């Protein structure tokens, strides 16, 4: 496994095809490991798996946790090596943004909904760095977790609208045995807060079970679970079509939730079949 930290080193090292990229902000956990394992399987032994580790300042708001975000490079590299990663790109801020960017990616109207209401400008920062890293790593496939479902949807739209020559591969959310979605921010939770956070998955699961009774029943079932734990402050609970447009008729849908547990903000989502 090779570690690169400059764009010149990265360009010199990315000659192997086919190539898969997994983009992270570090603090790797089993969810990231699942992305890397899927990438390794898809490109095969003859291909190359590239992992990027960069805490992107453009996607953090003024009151968010950029400085507090965990940086755990040594353990990240150990996980990467164990999952068969060939190349790690871990640039500094000055390497990726030598100047304050004056040209960024405008993500469209979906970015102003759901997460965008509470994190204005967040998705412009996400798509800008993803676009840069796709350009630098030149992959055939890029893998993203479904836990950040709105992010995944917007990346798919960007790749399609800008005719980027790669496939975006979604990977299912990895959960703890009790259902809590794995997240780098889970480490901020106290023992009590972690127990409270389980209500997110209980609410989503209750909504999924009510799918046979239609959209209103789905939302009502989820809200009933959430009301039982008033200490968890809900930013939004939304039922949308798979492309995050409005739900129209029976079929597949996606329920999304964001909530604050203590000082930690968590998101989750689940696929729901409406009858």
From TrEMBL:
Belongs to the pantothenate synthetase family. The active site is at residue 32. The keyword DNA repair does not apply. Beta-alanine binds at residue 59. The reaction proceeds by a bi uni uni bi ping pong mechanism. Gene3D superfamilies: HUPs, Pantoate-beta-alanine ligase, C-terminal domain. It comes from Kribbella hippodromi. ATP binds at residues 25-32, 145-148, 174, 182-185. This is Pantothenate synthetase. It catalyses: (R)-pantoate + beta-alanine + ATP = (R)-pantothenate + AMP + diphosphate + H(+). It holds the Pfam family Pantoate_ligase. Its main location: cytoplasm. Homodimer. (R)-pantoate binds at residues 59, 151. It is an enzyme of class 6 (ligase). Pathway: Cofactor biosynthesis; (R)-pantothenate biosynthesis; (R)-pantothenate from (R)-pantoate and beta-alanine: step 1/1. Catalyzes the condensation of pantoate with beta-alanine in an ATP-dependent reaction via a pantoyl-adenylate intermediate. Keywords: ATP-binding, Cytoplasm, Ligase, Nucleotide-binding, Pantothenate biosynthesis. GO terms for molecular function: ligase activity. The keyword Phosphoprotein does not apply. It comes from the Bacteria.
């Amino acid at each position: 496994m090779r570690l690169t930290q400059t764009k010149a080193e990265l360009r010199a090292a990315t000659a192997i095809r086919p190539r898969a990229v997994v983009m992270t902000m570090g603090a790797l956990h089993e969810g990231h490991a699942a992305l890397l394992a899927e990438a390794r399987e898809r490109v095969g032994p003859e291909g190359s798996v590239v992992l990027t580790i960069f805490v992107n300042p453009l996607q953090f708001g003024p009151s968010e946790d950029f400085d507090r975000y965990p940086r755990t490079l040594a353990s990240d590299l150990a996980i990467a090596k164990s999952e068969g990663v060939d190349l790690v790109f871990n640039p500094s801020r000055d390497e990726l943004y030598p100047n304050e960017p004056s040209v960024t990616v405008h993500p469209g109207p979906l970015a102003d909904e759901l997460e965008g209401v509470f994190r204005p400008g967040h998705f412009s920062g996400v798509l800008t760095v993803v676009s840069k890293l796709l350009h630098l790593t030149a992959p055939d496939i890029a893998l993203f977790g479904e836990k950040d479902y709105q992010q995944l949807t917007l990346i798919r739209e960007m790749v399609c609208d800008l005719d980027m020559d790669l496939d975006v591969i979604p990977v299912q959310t990895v959960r703890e045995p009790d259902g809590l979605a794995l997240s780098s921010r889970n480490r901020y939770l106290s023992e009590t807060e972690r127990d409270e956070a389980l209500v997110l998955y209980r609410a989503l699961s209750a909504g999924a079970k009510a799918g046979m009774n239609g959209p209103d029943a789905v939302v009502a079932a989820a809200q009933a679970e959430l009301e039982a734990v008033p200490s968890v402050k809900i930013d939004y609970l939304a039922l949308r079509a798979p492309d995050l447009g409005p739900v129209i008729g029976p079929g597949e849908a996606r329920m999304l939730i964001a909530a604050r547990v203590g000082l930690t903000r968590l998101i989750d989502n689940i696929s729901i079949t409406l009858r």
